[in-house]
Prior knowledge:
Layout: H1 3-9, H2 11-19, H3 24-34, E1 41-42, H4 50-59, H5 81-95, E2 104-107, H6 110-122, E3 136-141, H7 146-153, E4 158-163, H8 176-186, E5 195-199, H9 211-224, E6 228-232, H10 254-258, E7 263-267, E8 281-284, H11 288-295, H12 315-326, H13 337-363, E9 378-382, H14 411-421, E10 427-428, E11 430-431, E12 442-446, H15 452-467
Parallel strand pairs: 1-10, 3-4, 3-5, 5-6, 6-7
Antiparallel strand pairs: 2-8, 7-8, 9-12, 11-12
Amino acid sequence: MTNHDAMLASPEAAADLLGRLPDLEQALAFYHRHLASRTAIDLSVAENILVFEHSMQKKVFEDIKLIPETSIKYSASAGTPKLREQVADLLTLALGATVEGDDVFGVAGVSSALECVAFALKGRDPVGPPLKDGDLVLLPAPYWQGFNWSFEERPKLKCVPVNLPTTGPDRYRLTLAQIKQAYRDQTTPDRAPRLLVLTNPHNPLGVNYSRALLEEIYTWVLNETDMHIISDEIYCHSQLDSSTTKFTSALALDAYREQPDRVHVVWGFAKDFGLSGFRTGFVVSQNTAVRRAMLGSDDPSEATHPLPWFTPFDSLKTYVIGELLSAPADGPTSELYTTYAMREYSKLLSASFRTVRAALDAAGIEYVHHEGDNAAQFFWLDLTKYLGKRPDHSHEEDAGPMSLGAHGLDPDEERLFDYLRAKPTEVSLLPGGVMHNSVPGYFRLCYTARQPEEVRAAVQRVGKALGQLK
Ligand SMILES: Cc1ncc(COP(=O)(O)O)c(C=O)c1O
């Protein structure tokens, strides 16, 4: 019997394991997979089923039959040169800047790509002094909680949220002034922050940063500080057709062209292509210390093994992703499937966004979105006005949902989260507290986690449940 079967055979064991999963997003994914009722809908986890169901399954996966023998042996742990070239071509299209295969390094997931960059910057000659244990990483907050795992757990850096304003006309808007202020606040006579991490498009806010803002930030950071910048562009293809603030990659900035050495971009197939379980990640960097870390070094004075050896872009990934990257689109064009799929994805995403937005508006659920902004895969719901409220008498009381363990949330935010998770609503949203939001009451809804009609139904259930709070 596999572990998986054992868990399904024993709900007690599954419930026990659930209580011990440290990350709430992962706990929710596990709960919905193994324990929740069939009617429960999980919109908390950042997943994307749109492209797979639309075309990928039929056009790519149904044709992948057997893993060839050549793909069951060791292969280059940062990806084969061919695969790195193919990913460079894909990213050249997506990022609007030429990416060389030689500057692309594969690894098992973007989480690992981030960790590899952190380790590389702690090694020899990263351009500027190497980072040390306890060095500070600035992150506009809210931010994806996994940055803490990637930078703190093993590289021993320390994440510092740069809290975006949560009120006023500029709420949740990033400015250079906020970064400068955080940098100053965190600087002491013997230490200054060493890393700035920008997620573009943003998770959970969904926005693209404007080219002007990015030029301003990069110019200041690269000229006035010795910080490195990691630009996490994992959602770069997740673009609404209504977005007027167009996506600009770090690699397309003038500031980057002038000083490329301290800028590192990461991307992977988990989000835009919905292949989260594959764990694929790439670092794009021209920095020689990053290159040395990713490919290893035979320099006798400091021979090192490639970091991705331990979390590799292994032969299975190389085979399947290689097939995906070389599949042709159907029809008379000589276009690649990936080009077709990402164009279609933007249409699917835009249609889903419109459906779900209309449902949120109809249900009177507030969210943070400025016309013309991108949304990537998310709505950032503002449920602050429901904090501390209780269901009125017409609401059927339920025993409450299964506990997911302690996650240090604000008690009112947690109560609201559990209320929506309980019968009869049974919709999971990700509480903002998980993502280091500075005030309680905000929740992330991932609208690509299910087909639009199902998300619409979930939103209606949430709207009804909120309406019963007094
Ligand atoms: C901004 C961001 N970066 C990285 C990741 C993790 O990517 P992976 O699953 O490839 O490790 C996520 C996943 O939610 C994310 O939102």
